[in-house]
Specification:
13 strands; alpha/beta; UDP-N-acetylglucosamine 2-epimerase (non-hydrolyzing); single chain; WecB-like; 6-stranded parallel beta sheet; 2 domains; isomerase; UDP-N-acetylglucosamine 2-epimerase activity; EC 5.1.3.14; Rossmann fold
Length: 386
Amino acid sequence: MIPTVLTVFGTRPEAIKVAPLIRAIEASNALLSRTLVTAQHREMLDQVNDLFGIVPDTDLNIMAKGQTLNGIASRVIGELDTVLAEEAPDAVLVQGDTTTVMGASIAAFNRGIPVIHLEAGLRSGNLQSPFPEEANRKLTSQLSALHLAPTPGSRDNLLAEGISPDDVVVTGNTVIDALHLAVDMNVAPTDPIVGDYVAADRPKLLVTTHRRENLGSAMENIGDALAELAEDRPELLILLPAHRNPLVREAVLPRVEKFDNVLVTEPLSYGEFTTVMAASDVILTDSGGIQEEAPSLGKPVLVMRENTERPEAVDAGSVKLVGTDRDLIVAEVAGLFDDVLAYDSMAKAVNPYGDGRAADRSVAAIEELLGVGERIGEFAPSSLHY
């Protein structure tokens, strides 16, 4: 009997990173694919699934207004347990560090079903930052049978925690596989404002911010920094796809709304966002995934966080931590636009995250785990940009 892999995911970042692997599992003659979404992020999740042609077999649709993290975890574990009892998959695949990942790992482990963790081994070293992601991924590592680590550094983190090296495979990150697929699609923006940004022949800064730990005064600092940049540099075009969290909008938007060179839009689809990234000169963000994607496009990334679980890009020189201090953000952004050598050193840095074959390596490792195949060579960081 052909073994079945049930892929469980619930948010847009998870959907982006599992999509290439789901497609690879579907293409395998040795595995059967089933997909389940918790819909922790409803609309943004559906956009990504539509782009990559992923049609979930099961949709738990767990979200309710005002739900706590414990409420989400409880529903994931309870409702997924029913599915696991009925379908009895041979393995459960999860990606990353969301509450969906943690809950699904517990549910599968308690059913005696092997857990496969895609993007395993990321660590910030601080349980409170990012919260709750650092705790989620550490818990998931303890329950997983196969750890698909994106980088050698991620593998080393797992080995330091006592994970057997036989259970770890360095695959590269599937976000690079997804990026290659999406860039090739060349998705046109639906919002004319975004289309104008992409077409504009002037310096361009793309900004995204949403992290829970940046809410409050830190988010206000970010808004103040953007306002200062907009006022001091009228030639600079700033695109801000605004996160739907009202706490983000209330802190940032009033500070920038009077500037004609700050373009505020609704969140972009993943396909549109890849087009925008490719058209931008510098990216200012607190996102984790963008730290991985942008180096493949040769874009310098300034990260508005105090630490990162993705140190490889910092070490390579393509990413720089700037925190949430207003003056530092302004100085670092200005430095990249004013200093050609500084810009080029970041834009041409080594890409440490992937070569577009992470899904192939992951499928081979899964086939070996389930006794129907063999692993292939592991990923080694490349200096090539896409």
